[in-house]
Design brief:
By secondary structure, the protein is an alpha+beta fold. The protein has helices spanning about 1-20, 35-45, 50-65, 120-125; strands at about 45-50, 70-75, 80-90, 95-100, 105-115. The chain has a single domain, classed as TATA-Binding Protein (2-Layer Sandwich). The longest helix is centred in the first third of the chain and has 21 residues, at about 1-20.
Length: about 130
């Protein structure tokens, strides 16, 4: 008999779990539609930024792209105090590249969506 009492509870938990996993925007995660990513990237660009501004924009970008299905490929802080970050979307075959100043003040931030897969060695300076 104890099994009959647990069945409704287990069923309710299973239904709730399926509902949350299957619902678009589950748990407040709102994905940015693919066609809006380019516009959002343009809005995020700026100059004369403080370090905290650039850091916050990179975090926002990481969250937005993760929700849109992008996978972080790599990030690198160069000797020139510029953070370079790269994401790729395997289904859409697009890449996003971001450059962000990493000094106390007077930084620039820019990000661009590109067709195809951008490889890390394409971003490195050649002698």
């Amino acid at each position: 008999m104890p099994t009959l009492h647990l069945l409704p509870r287990r069923l309710a938990v299973a239904l709730l779990t399926l509902g949350l996993l299957g619902a678009p925007g589950a748990l407040g995660r709102l994905a940015v539609p693919a066609e809006e990513i380019g516009n959002r990237l343009t809005e995020m660009s700026g100059t004369g930024l403080k370090f905290a501004d650039c850091e916050q924009r990179l975090q926002t970008l990481e969250t937005m792209l993760g929700r849109a299905g992008y996978v972080s490929r790599r990030s690198h802080l160069g000797a020139d105090a510029v953070m370079t970050a790269l994401w790729y979307h395997p289904q859409r075959h697009t890449s996003v590249v971001a450059f962000s100043g990493w000094q106390a003040a007077d930084n620039a931030f820019s990000a661009k969506e590109l067709d195809g897969e951008v490889r890390w060695n394409e971003l490195l300076a050649t002698p």
